[in-house]
Write a structure and sequence with these properties.
155 residues; Jelly Rolls; three-stranded antiparallel β-sheet; 2 helices; 12% helix; 43% strand
């Protein structure tokens, strides 16, 4: 079976410092509490332990999305084309890619507050990533011209 690469040449990726991934905000709808975000995971590099604080769905566009439990054991591998709906406040986990970079569309739903809690290894420190962080990122994408490169705009 042939393998295809998602063409992300026009996407200006930003870094999620706290998660160890890259991201691009596709769209936000504050009235409905929805954030659609592409997240890129580098090959064989688990992200940080985190917990989703709102309902979400994922669609794997490229590669495999790997999940690890808090103890580091492999929980699940989702191949390209996998769609999953998850609920808020599930088990903390880390995510990453297999041998190829993984690109995943995350659709976060249900609010405009905190979306992720990221746990620092060996510490009680928790970082929160929220809707306001993505609003600022999207505004910067528009101002810098990054959004125009992929024609991101309201329908």
């Amino acid at each position: 079976m042939p393998s295809y690469q998602f063409d992300d040449r026009n996407i200006t990726w930003r870094s999620f410092d706290y998660l160890g991934t890259q991201y691009y905000v596709q769209a936000l709808d504050a009235a409905m509490g929805i954030a659609d975000v592409l997240i890129k995971f580098q090959p064989n590099t688990p992200g940080k332990l985190h917990q989703h604080l709102m309902d979400y769905s994922t669609f794997v566009l490229q590669g495999e999305l790997h999940f690890w439990r808090p103890d580091g054991s492999l929980k699940e591998i989702r191949p390209t084309g996998s769609y999953v709906h998850g609920t808020a406040n599930g088990e903390p986990h880390s995510e990453g890619a297999g041998d190829q970079a993984a690109i995943v569309l995350f659709s976060l739903r249900g609010g405009t507050g905190d979306m992720f809690a990221v746990f620092e290894a060996g510490s009680d420190e928790v970082h929160k990533i929220g809707f306001a962080d993505l609003q600022a990122a999207l505004a910067d994408q528009v101002a810098s011209g990054a959004a125009a490169k992929v024609a991101s705009r309201p329908a």
